[in-house]
Every structure is written in structure tokens, then in C-alpha cells.
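YM 10:42: TonB-dependent receptor sequence, as discussed on the call
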Amino acid sequence: MNAPRLSLMALALITALPALAQETQAKDRSQLEAVVITAERRAENIQDVPSAVSKISGEKLDVLASGGQDLRFLSGRVPSLNIESSFGRAFPRFYLRGYGNTDFRLNASQPVSVIVDDVIQENPILKGFPIFDTAAVEVVAGPQGTLFGRNTPAGVVKFDSVKPSQKQDGYVSATVGNYGTVNLEGAANLPLSGDWAARISAQTQRRSDWVDNTAPNAVTPKTEGYRDSAVRGQVLYEPHKQFSALLNVHFRDLDGSPRLFRANAIKRGTNDLADGFDAEKVAFDGVNEQTLKQSGGSLRLKWSLPELNIYSITGGEHVKPLSRGDIDGGVLGQAGIPFPSETGSGMNGHRQLTQEVRLESNTSGPMSWQAGVYLFDEKYTIDNITYDTTTHVANDHIYSEQTNKAWAVFGSVNYAVNKDLTLRGGLRYTKDKKDLATTHAGSGGFNTSTGTSASTDDGKWSGDLSATYKLDATTNVYARFANGFRASSMQNASAFAGQSQAGPESVNSYEIGFKSELLKRTLRLSGSLFTYTVKDLQLTAVGGSSNATRLLNAKKATGNGAELNLEALITPDLLVTFGGSLNNTKIKDAALGVPPGGSLQVGTAFPTVLDPMVGGNAMVDGNPLPNAPKWTANLTARYSMPLADGSEVYVYTDWAYRSKVNFFLYEATEFTGKALTEGGLRVGYIWGNGKYEAAGFVRNITNQIRVTGAIDFNNLTGFINDPRTYGVQFKAMF
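YM 10:58: structure's back
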């Protein structure tokens, strides 16, 4: 489905919304609303779940998304969550408690699992599907392999769409902002005849190219714009309470810019931006473009028997991305550009098939349980392309075909020992097999020193055990042990390096915490202490002196820290939330070293390496994990001013802070990202019994610009966060 059609669907949706407005239910403003989550595959009060879970929904989710940014806007908005990308909107990389993966290749494996409407999105390109008409985002830290599987040793980020119902309602939202930003979003719930209901949701986001390319005769004169459109259709069939079937189909079409690499963006010997840096100007002599087409669907069946619920979840996904960029980020002959590089990565023939059957007890006794089987099958071909930097025509292709088949069986039991103590435990066995074969076509180099094909075959038990104890009517304490597992990873041979492989990793995690609702449920407070050890941690050495990206295992890595969440209804008109985390991570492998970038390139701006050098390698033992801030904090405050006619004026502000981060495995002055604080402000007016809203907003209100990532290549190339954006939004509920 092409972009114009998706945009037209969004507009058609807006104009087709039902004319009959529904009355908005008045909320109890004297206490906090109960938070219901599905972190353990059942609907439960967040206070009763023995793990660190955060939920973003409702107005908070709408405010964070208002600027049109992709789902990286969630980064730092709950404790210990970091999201970054060197691909732009198409390829987010998730980190929980400092544990993630910096690999940028299209078959990269990530230890944080992303689940959308009960379907695991394994390939990193699938994980960037836009957020719209979303009921909630849940972030579950720590290993979650018992019930979710598929590479969850760091945790899970779970997205749940608003489901169809028999109500006739919907909404439409329109935003206009600087940089030519236009966002349209809407949804309509459509009761059909008899036992059927449907919901259609759509979003289209546009931004103009706001960065000028000042290079002479630039083939890409402007960049950083995008057009990103998506649509989701759902049909619910529920003839009676004992059976339901939910069909979900979705599409995405992205045409935009890859991550903009900026040559010599970092000042030599510091981690400051270079003198005279201008976020709206760049000079490069290559082509920058990015496209992505995605389609998928799922069928969720539920049978409710007298003492048993049976679920079947079938999913299928297909994605076809192409991202092409000027990797050196500059112009040949410019300082620090000893040679030009223009490359691209695409994927052909991708398909992911998943099937889960899960049984769930449906009784009122002290014991409840779940058990099931999970099947996974994925296949695709990656096309790594090199372009002639003069003609900009593709002259070399390295094709890598990968298949991944996996299955798992799992079970989990909850047992209420008495009214105060509940025990939970689970176990899962996973079998995972991958095959990789690489071929070469073109005039470029191809390193076959370590072969052109490889296979892995892993099997592993994982599980968890926890206890929750009710101290009193307002406070629970809990303890949890969990073991996680991630299967082996492989990467294809390239012009600079042979194929590489990293063996399976496993993690043991220990956590204690508390959850309280105090002061007549006007204060909700939770906290946790945790420690984990990863054995045979999979790492990616990116770039370096030979521009070789390869997989490797560290003997061990550790992490420990603390997390805190607070919600306070200070008055019926003032709500404040706060979240914070402390994360200490460390690589522990005295023999592990990687070559720093630029060390073999003539004319390169060498990074100032801070690690001991042995034989041309920087020794990384004791370094923090990449993109793992030690401190994070987030704050929101909403103040409401009710008016006599029932309308409302409000002010909403939100802030997120993360401390400095290390971009790579080795430490260098230039490749240490400064601390980053981003804030937003929204002022709005709600009227018509809550059905209409108009607001003005500012994102990154202080316009704090930081280098948020770098290219370990032939110069001090970096990329930055979004500058200040602002706009106005109108939303109507029907």
C-alpha cells in the first residue's frame, strides 16, 4: 500500500467518524486511578505484580507523542529505559537497566523484546512501528523469558492497541508545527450487526527537510524530512462470553531520511560539539534516503471453558526496508575525510510467522496457572550495497540469507499460601536454530577468511521464582529471581571482515522491591533494588581501525542499581509523577580488547582513547556497557484550572534526564555522550464535556543539542537529538 493511499485513508477516517458524540464519564478527582497491567499475561493490579513494571497511557502518552517523533520519545520516560538509533525512524535499539545491543545490522539480535498486540516483533526493523490509538505501553524490566520468550533477558516493552467494542465512538487529532510538521491521527469504533465490531485507526506524520546540504553540487540538497503513514484495522467477533476472535491487520509506509551522519561534529579532545556547529547545516557528497514498507496481521482466539481459558495467537509480519546514506558524513578532501563511503542496507523476502497456544486456569482457588507452546519461523535476505561515490550507482552487493526456527514450551504457577503471601514460579525450554549463507556480486572486496555460511543450534532452560507479601492494606513487598537466555547470533562476511558469530548468553537476575498506595490512594510509590550477571554477553565491536563490525562474547558483565516510581495527587487539580533509576554496569573480561577507530587512517581525527592499549587494541575490562546511563530521571506535572462552565484550562510539563553515556565498547573522550535533559510544555483548553481539546506545545523546550551517537570510522562523525519543536494540536472525541 503506498503512502498517498494511507494518507487518504487517514483523511477518510477523520471525515467518516460517527456524528453522535458519546458522553464522557466523569472521573473521580479525589484519588489516583487504579493501574491494571498484563505484564504476566493476565489483567492484574500493578501493585500485585512482583516485578518492576511501568505503564504509560492516556494523556501522558498523547503529550509525549505530540511532537511527531518516532517511538524514541519513550526513552527515559520510565526508569532504566533508553532507546536510541543510528538508522533513524526505522530501527530503534532498546536498553533496559543498561542491557541492550548496539548492533546496527538488519539481522541484529536485541535482549529487549518488543511485543505489539501479543505478537513478538523479533527483527529490529519491525520494532519501529508507529504508536497511535494505543491503550498502553508497559515496560517490564528484568528477564521475562518464562511467559514471553524470544530473547527477553533484559526485559519487555509491550504495546497494546485500543480494541474494538460495541460502542460507537472515535477521535480525530490534527497537529501543525515548525519544520513543516503535520500530524493527522484518528480512530473510529464501528459496531457492526449482531456479534461483530470493528475499529479502524490511522496516522500520517510529515516533516519537511529542515537541514541544508552546503556541499557543492550536492546530490541530496536537503535532508531530515519524512513522511510516515500507518493504518490498523481490527475486527472482533464475540457471539457469546465463551468465545471471541480478534483479527488485526496493519500497514506502514515510510519515505524519509536515514540517520544524518555529520563529519567532524565533535571537537577534538572533548565531547563538545565542534566550533561553529549548526544543526540546520551539513556538507556531504553522497545520497541520503530511506524507505520502508511493512504489513502484518494476527488472529487472537479465546475460548472460555468452565475452569479453563484457551488462547491461540497466530501472527505474520513482512517488512521491506532500504536505508542508504553518506557514511563518512562529509566531502572528500575535507579535513578528516581520507576516503568517501556511500552504502546501503536492504531486506528482501522477509517473513515472520509465529504461533502460540496458551492454557490458563479460570478458577477461584488459591492456585492459578498458565502453560503453552510457542513456535517461531523467520526468513529473509539482506542486501548490503556499496555505491560508486562518483556516479552514485550501486556497484557491489553482498547477499546474506538467514533463517531462524525456534520452539518453546512453558508453564507458570501462582499459589496464594494465605491472604498475605503469594508465590509464583515458572519454567521454559527454548530450542533455537539459525542458518546463514552469504554470496557476493560486484566489483568490491569480500572477505571469505572465516567462510561464507554458518549454523547455530541452541537449547536452554530458563525460569523465574518470586514471592509477594502484603505488609498491610496499602503496601506489598516482593522478591524475584529470574534466569534469561538469548540464542546465538551470526553476522555475514563483508569487504573488510569475515563473518563472525557470538555464542548464546544467559543472565541471572535478583530483585527486591515494594509497592504502596498511601494517603487514601493519593500517593502511589514503588521501588526496587536489583543485580544481574550476564554470562557470555554478546557484544558488537563497531567500526574500528579496519572498519570491521564483528560479533564477540565477553566472559561476563554485571549490572546493579535501584529504581523508583512515584505518583502524587497533591490536590484534585495537581498531579505530579516522578521516576528515577541508578544503573551500574560493567564489562568483566580482562582479555577483551577492540581496535579504536581511525588508528590506521591517514588524515583521521584520532579519538582520545582512555583505555589501556595492548597490541593496537583498547582493553575494555571494567568499562560500562554502551548506551547505559548511570542515572535517569523523569518528571511530569499537570495543573488543572476548571472553569465555571465545566470547561478546563491546564498546564502540563514533562522532563527527562539521563547522565553521560559511552557510545562504544572502548572509552574515548570524544565518544562519551554528555548528559542530556529534554523538557516539554503543553498548555491546553478542554471543553464540551471533555470532547474537544485545543493545545499548544513545545518539545525540547531548552533546545539542548547533544551528540547522541557516533560513527567509529574515519573521522569524528556524530549525530544529534532533535532540536526544539513546537506546534498546535486540536483533538475531538466522538
